[in-house]
Design brief:
The protein has 13 helices and 16 strands. The protein is α/β, with parallel strands linked by helices. The protein folds into 2 domains: 163 residues, 2-Layer Sandwich (Alpha-Beta Plaits), CATH 3.30.70.560; 239 residues, TIM Barrel, CATH 3.20.20.20. It has an 8-stranded parallel beta barrel with strand order 9-10-11-12-13-14-15-16. Helix 6 packs parallel to helix 7. The two termini are 30 Å apart.
């Protein structure tokens, strides 16, 4: 017999969005029919006299699902997740934490013991538990208060949070360290400007930052690996020293650049070449390879199968493969829309998918708006993608807003 339950997640230390993502992944293995709310950023709740260093904003969300575990057994699992994600058992109350996993309710059970109280005593008192829980299970009735989550949610003002984010798809924020890229060439060419932009994208909700130093513009000068590395190295050095928790992707076709980048905490290699030496590098360091298709629409599926076969033969696991169908490469606007409408097909191959649609001109076949409106079009389009795990975008904030609204429907 299974019981509907709700679990509140919160994080205000480290890579908060990644911590929530990992916690949800662990919960999805424990719960059936699991669902997650949008993510709310809220100010930390602190007692008087708390150290200033504790005043770090939280990201909060709620997960619901069915469990066959008894309440205390479920609590043990939640505490195991907290421990795995780095939460210290000896930390001071109210101090920052990498993750909180709180059992908010367990069906209509009422439990008061030394280890566990359900429903959670703060469930109807806090915006960041009531509102996201009401999004997922609005008609759940509090067994003591005899009030539904939907009714309880009416008591909170709309300014109870700072902003909202979505957990998926995860976003790679683009930083072009180039003088000649299509949409932003020259804006982030200086290392200090590139670092500042990367920090902004991360603050806006990027899961990772994708640094590239070679423009794909047809008129752009091809760089030697030495020239490309000369652009990238000071940016990687400066950014990783300031934001060591942030995941990083390197967009390069030069093996020597990828190899040298591994002197820094790199998580992805984003390349159109998936030749053996690249794959060996990825397999050895347990990285993720983003393989980008530059062929026509007729070959996308066969290309994808070929990539997967070669990657698996090189020793990679499926979770190390990220397929990008190559929006804007060797495809007409109509072909691009055909690919976007069939993304589920790529996902059915059992690997993660990425779409790099941001600021690509294919939408001009159906919209006559200026380039300055490209981010609006890109974000609206992204809210309709199905089966996509990652988005590679220039404007993280706008895409987050569109995806949050989409998730609320």
């Amino acid at each position: 017999m299974s019981t509907q339950c709700a679990i509140g997640l919160g994080a205000n230390q480290g890579h908060r969005l990644d911590n929530l993502s990992q916690a949800y992944h662990a919960l999805s293995q424990l719960l059936s029919n699991s669902k997650y709310s949008i993510v709310y950023e809220t100010e930390a709740l602190l007692p008087d006299g708390a150290p200033c260093s504790w005043n770090l904003p939280y990201l909060n969300m709620v997960v619901t699902g069915q469990t066959s575990l008894e309440p205390l057994d479920l609590l043990d699992k939640l505490q195991s997740i907290e421990k795995k994600l780095g939460r210290s058992v000896n930390r001071q109350k109210w101090s920052p934490r990498s993750i909180d996993c709180d059992l908010l309710y367990y069906g209509d059970r009422v439990i008061k013991s030394e280890r566990l109280t359900v429903p959670h005593p703060e469930l109807f008192k806090r915006f960041f538990t009531t509102i996201p829980a009401a999004q997922l299970d609005p008609h759940w009735i509090h067994p003591i208060l005899k009030q539904s989550l939907l009714d309880a949610a009416k008591c909170f003002p709309s300014d109870s949070f700072t902003r909202t984010l979505t957990l998926t798809p995860k976003m790679l924020g683009i930083v072009n360290v180039t003088p000649d890229s299509f949409s932003d060439g020259g804006k982030f060419f200086r290392p200090e400007d590139a670092i500042k932009q990367a920090e902004k994208l991360y603050a806006d909700g990027a899961y990772a930052i994708d640094f590239g130093a070679q423009s794909t513009k047809p008129s752009a000068k091809p760089l030697s690996w030495q020239e490309e590395w000369e652009r990238l190295e000071p940016v990687l050095s400066g950014f990783t020293s300031k934001q060591p928790q942030v995941k990083i992707s390197i967009d390069t076709s030069h093996f020597e650049v990828a190899k040298r980048a591994l002197g820094y905490p790199i998580n992805w290699i984003n390349t159109v070449f998936y030749e053996p030496k690249f794959l060996e590098l990825v397999e050895h360091r347990q990285l993720v390879v983003t393989a980008t298709n530059q062929k026509s629409i007729q070959n996308v599926l066969s290309w994808a199968k070929e990539v997967i076969t070669q990657c698996l033969a090189a020793g990679l696991k499926k979770n190390q493969i990220l397929l990008d169908p190559g929006i804007g490469f060797s495809k007409s606007p109509l072909e691009t829309f055909q690919i976007l409408s069939a993304l589920k097909t790529l996902k059915s191959l059992g690997v993660n998918t990425l779409v790099g649609h941001s600021r690509k001109p294919f939408w001009r076949i159906c919209l006559s708006e200026p380039k300055s409106q490209a981010d609006i079009s890109s974000s609206i389009l992204a809210s309709h993608f199905e089966g996509v795990d990652y988005l590679r975008v220039h404007n993280v904030e706008m895409h987050q807003r569109a995806l949050v609204l989409s998730q609320m429907l």
